């Protein structure tokens, strides 16, 4: 085997590793984005109830007096 062939094989292997690494990064980025979207789409029920109670209770108290 000539050195040209070995260099070509080495370069092909390097390019393949580079493609695989880029694919892994893209998958990780997508997974992180989906996880963040999921967290923002699902509101905290306890947080919603607390904020709505703090807004409705004073107005109800004002109307009763």
Please provide a written account of the structure.
The chain is mainly alpha-helical and 65 residues long. The protein has a domain of 41 residues. 91% of the residues lie in helices and 0% in strands. The longest helix has 39 residues. The N and C termini lie far apart (97 Å).
Fraction of residues in H or I helices: over 70%
Please give the number of β-strands: 0
Largest sheet: none
Classify the secondary structure makeup into a structural class: mainly alpha
Give the mean pLDDT.
79
Q: Which overall shape is indicated by the principal axes computed on the Cα atoms? A: rod-shaped
Compute the CA-based radius of gyration.
29 Å
What string gives the helices and strands in order? HH
Enumerate the spans where pLDDT stays under 50 for 5 or more consecutive residues: 49-54
User: From the structure provided, what is the oligomeric state, counting identical versus distinct chains?
Assistant: single chain
Sheet-strand content, in percent, reads under 5%
């Amino acid at each position: 085997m000539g050195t040209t062939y070995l260099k070509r094989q080495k370069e092909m292997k390097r390019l393949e590793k580079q493609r695989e690494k880029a694919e892994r990064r893209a998958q990780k980025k997508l997974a992180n984005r989906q996880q963040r979207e999921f967290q923002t789409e699902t509101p905290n029920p306890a947080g919603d109830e607390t904020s709505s109670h703090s807004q409705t209770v004073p107005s109800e108290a004002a109307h009763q007096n």
